[in-house]
Amino acid sequence: MAEVIIIGAGPAGLSAATRLAREGVKVLVLDREAEPGGIPRHCAHSPYGFREFHRPMRGPAYARRLVAGAQAAGAEIRPRTSVTALHPGGRIEVTSPDGPATLTAPIVLLATGCRETSRAARLIGGEKQAGVLNTGALQGIVHLNHQRPFQRPVILGTELVAFSALLTCREAGISPVAMLEPGPRITARAPADWLPWALGVPLRLNTRITQILGRSRVERVLIQTPDGPDEIACDGVILTGGFRPDAPLIRASHLELDPASGGPVVDPWGRLTDPAYFAAGNLLRGVETAGWCWAEGQRVAGAIHAALKGQLPPPGGARLRIASDAVKLAVPQVIAPEASGRLQLRLTRPAKGRLRLIQDGVTLAETRIDSLPERRITLPLPTPKGSGDITLTLAE
Ligand SMILES: Cc1cc2nc3c(=O)[nH]c(=O)nc-3n(C[C@H](O)[C@H](O)[C@H](O)COP(=O)(O)OP(=O)(O)OC[C@H]3O[C@@H](n4cnc5c(N)ncnc54)[C@H](O)[C@@H]3O)c2cc1C
User: Fold this and answer.
1) pLDDT band at 143, cuts 50/70/90?
2) C-beta 282 within 6 A of ligand 1
3) Which atom of ligand 1 is nearest to the CA of 14?
4) How far, in Å, are 191, 333, 358, 360, 370 from residue 353 at the CA level?
5) Which residue has its alpha carbon closest to ligand 1 atom 4?
6) How far is the CA of 113 from the centre of ligand 1 (A)?
């Protein structure tokens, strides 16, 4: 019987599996896909692997290397196995080609990643025609099925993943007709905006899609621009970014979900509100780099190893409450005095000012920030003086 079951064979799950198996822990990794490797398996482009293997790699090669590393360390990886329910104490339900089953382990690590915002959640009107994909689906169709779903799509969004979609289009011989960004500037860091320019794809800021039109296939999109409504002829739409943790399992379970991050409530060790469960990777907050998720998997594996030996501090600590509409999320949400590490934040909008962490009227930590939305902001974890709530404020 496994001592640790890991749900999700992406960079976070595989890195945790490798570290635990190297420590002699019996690990079982489950993934619903036919092959392990997570998102990088679909991303034929670079750069993956700098932090882990000290060189740039393409996604599929990086995924193969992570899988080989976990297996060489002794972890068992079981693909085509979907986890369908989580119960108290590390009991989970799975379904696979062998049928449904119940598995139990002293510790279960959730590493199910994140997903892009759907068309429905973006409130884009129009008919439900073929040719509207998110980046993940596009890359699956292009790299795994070797098909070209459209020839002249519009790309919506300018997070880093939108530029990944551009590269996928280029490799597949697809020519996007425009890249649209609802905000006044691109979300990814400059010089990402150089890429559409170099590929001859017009980048239109302050522009959003209001409707996608076409009967069975996409024929055009209606857009709202600073100069008023307009339209673009196209045969597809790529909806990029707007990542949210892939957390339906948690929503349907006894585990507490954090409404701000969309992921589980975790303490500094990655432990959830039921101490039989831990989490790492993009499930915690939406998209990060693979290297970041890999490092998170390593760190949480260390905590799991300590928990198996009874060496982790008992659960509990001060809860972090966000009291600023500019702050989108903060991870971890439970802060304990024994923990070191960093608090990770993201903003909803561009903001600058003094960020304060206050407990019982006492400022535990403060720092100045000046950041755009969706950028990674980190600061040292504060040391709480008790279990009272810690309030996070931003004086702009
Ligand atoms: C289009 C795109 C391009 C990117 N390009 C780069 C890049 O160039 N460089 C870089 O560093 N990062 C890049 N990233 C980010 C990077 O790929 C991710 O941060 C990383 O893969 C996250 O790792 P993870 O382990 O948290 O999740 P994932 O890689 O998403 O893995 C999660 C796994 O969990 C499995 N799973 C989910 N639910 C269940 C369930 N119920 N039962 C069983 N299995 C389940 C999934 O099948 C999946 O295999 C890119 C991301 C995207 C979307």
Assistant:
1) confident
2) yes
3) 25
4) 25, 22, 16, 22, 7
5) 161
6) 5
Say yes or no to pLDDT of 125 above 80.
no
* Residue whose CA lies nearest to ligand 1 atom number 52: 161
Atom from ligand 1 closest to the CA of residue 281: 26
Residue 78 CA: distances (Å) to CA of 5, 27, 32: 11, 11, 9
Cα separation, 226 vs 231, in Å, equals 13
What would the pLDDT profile of 238-266 be if each residue is shown by its tens digit?
A: 999 889 999 999 999 999 999 999 999 99
pTM for this one? Answer: 0.93
Q: Ligand 1 pocket: which of 39, 43, 239, 278 to mutate (most atoms <8 Å of CB)?
A: 39
What three-state secondary structure class fits 250?
helix
- Is the distance from the beta carbon of residue 134 to the nearest atom of ligand 1 less than 6 Å? no
As a whole number of angstroms, the distance between CA 302 and CA 331 comes to 18
- What is the 8-class DSSP label of residue 148? -
Q: Look at phi and psi of residue 384 and say left if phi exceeds 0, alpha if psi is from -120 to 50, else beta.
A: beta
Q: Residue 363 carries which side chain, given as an amino acid letter?
A: T
Q: How far is 70 from 14, CA to CA, in rounded Å?
A: 6
Is 379 in contact with 345 (CB distance < 8 Å)? yes
Averaged pLDDT, 187-216: 91
Give the residue, by CA position, lying nearest to ligand 1 atom 21: 39
C-alpha dihedral sign at 156, 161, 167, 169 = negative
Average confidence score pLDDT of the chain: 94
In tens, the pLDDT along 157-166 reads 999 899 999 9
**Which backbone phi and psi does 27 adopt, to 5 degrees?**
-120, 135
Ligand 1 neighbour 47 (Cβ under 6 A): yes
Segment 170-183, tens digit of pLDDT: 999 999 999 999 99
CA 199 – CA 168 distance, rounded (Å): 12
Are the beta carbons of 48 and 290 closer than 8 angstroms? yes
Across residues 338-354, what is the average pLDDT? 93
Summarize pLDDT for 32-47 with one digit per residue, the tens: 999 999 999 988 777 8
- Element spanning 104, H or E: strand 99-104
Name the residue of 112, 167, 300 to mutate for ligand 1: max ligand atoms within 8 A of Cβ. Answer: 112
